[in-house]
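Summary for the steering committee. The consortium agreed at its last meeting that each partner would contribute one worked example illustrating the joint modelling workflow. Our contribution is presented below. We chose a case with several input lines so that the handling of multiple components could be demonstrated. No manual editing was applied between input and output; the record is shown as generated.
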Amino acid sequence: MYVTNANQAVDMADFAQFPTETCALPETRLAAGAHLFREGDAVTRIYQVVAGVVSLNRLLEDGRRQIIAFGLPGDLVGFPCDGRHHTDCEALSLVRLQPFRITQIDCATGDPVLRARFMEAALHEIAAMQDHFMMLGRKSAAERVASFLIALDARTGQDRDGQRRVDLPMSRADIADFLGLTTETVSRVLSQLRKSRVIALDGIHRVVFLRPAALRALATGDCD
Amino acid sequence: MYVTNANQAVDMADFAQFPTETCALPETRLAAGAHLFREGDAVTRIYQVVAGVVSLNRLLEDGRRQIIAFGLPGDLVGFPCDGRHHTDCEALSLVRLQPFRITQIDCATGDPVLRARFMEAALHEIAAMQDHFMMLGRKSAAERVASFLIALDARTGQDRDGQRRVDLPMSRADIADFLGLTTETVSRVLSQLRKSRVIALDGIHRVVFLRPAALRALATGDCD
DNA sequence: CGCCGAGTTGACAATGATCAAGACCTGTGG
DNA sequence: CCACAGGTCTTGATCATTGTCAACTCGGCG
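What follows is the complete predicted structure of the assembly.
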């Protein structure tokens, strides 16, 4: 999952399920904290997240971390480049994944339907990453957090009592590493949104949208 | 072109030329400042840069700009998503481009060889963008500029008198919008590198690498 | 020669990072 | 069921990096 402009829905979730019957590999399960693959690993499978959340990470030698994307249900993770993974993939919760053999995609012997869907997913991935660049390069801390909440809501938000609410299945540190901020800054922005009654926090890992319009304005910088 | 870690060569340039004979469309020429396409345009062609440089841009309503990537000779630009372009594409110099019909790629009627190369290019694009995330999210201004010079050198650098030298075909503002900085900061970092004898500036648009090792150390943060 | 845009440099401000302390969950064991 | 321990989260104080605003220089071109 990447963060997009408020007015652009993230549509990875709209993808039709991959045709599992054509290449039935058993579902993989992963406990929170476990790694599915690491940067540099040879790619033999790609995975569609069925349930739970994963993160795609890159590390710098000195420990700085950037989360490239979160993998939510419906997302495809593990795009190869020259046969290798270019990120770590870590489970943030109990995760279920549907694996697909890479051989079914990258050569002429594979399934054309699967290959076409894979191509489509890769192009969506590129478009989503392009949106995310704008955020990392040009948006303020408040804009980033607001954009993140809106994007997450578009993917996994629920209606309850006429209010949108969204779970944050990841830690503040994960959010910070995704947005290019520190945990302290993420925490401060959330507190500020809470104090200004734009959101409410229902426990640490659930956000209720009190004034969605204000949040949208914040995300796009229209509040000035 | 994206900026990668210093130790990872940008390899888009290694791609075999696309088989132009299979779908011979005439080369497109574009003057500096002209737009090849804009965000939202329907995608009918994708293009391989033959000569010159283009930039792929995204804009925020308030004018903030992020350059997603520079398109250097060999690079493929115009990846579609749901049939639309998701960035503007602007020529930064006189540019020559080889167009390809999108119909040859996205459906079963297309050329399999071309489609495979397109797939490969898309996956390389994803990997390159992942590298760039680390820079925008986690690197300091000096690290970004140093990384940028090294990445550009890997693509278009020349040897002369035993020294590497690289042209900067874009303005300081373009570099800033690519790196998520301001023109002033880019200028200051370049001045500082010049004063510390890491680089020399041979005119505004040419950099000579005096101490490449120091530049590499700077790019990866090893200088501390 | 003078103009004009791009680039550079300086002074200052602001945003977000860092460092530190305290509060709050959550799981474990008595 | 409660107490404790360890991590996560929040909040405050301070600092550093980078952005902003402004002045000035440089280089190309009429």
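The helical segments of chain A are 103-106, 112-138, 141-156, 172-179, 183-195, 212-220. Residues 140-141, 181-182, 184-185, 188, 203-204 of chain A lie near DNA strand C (CB under 10 Å from a C1').
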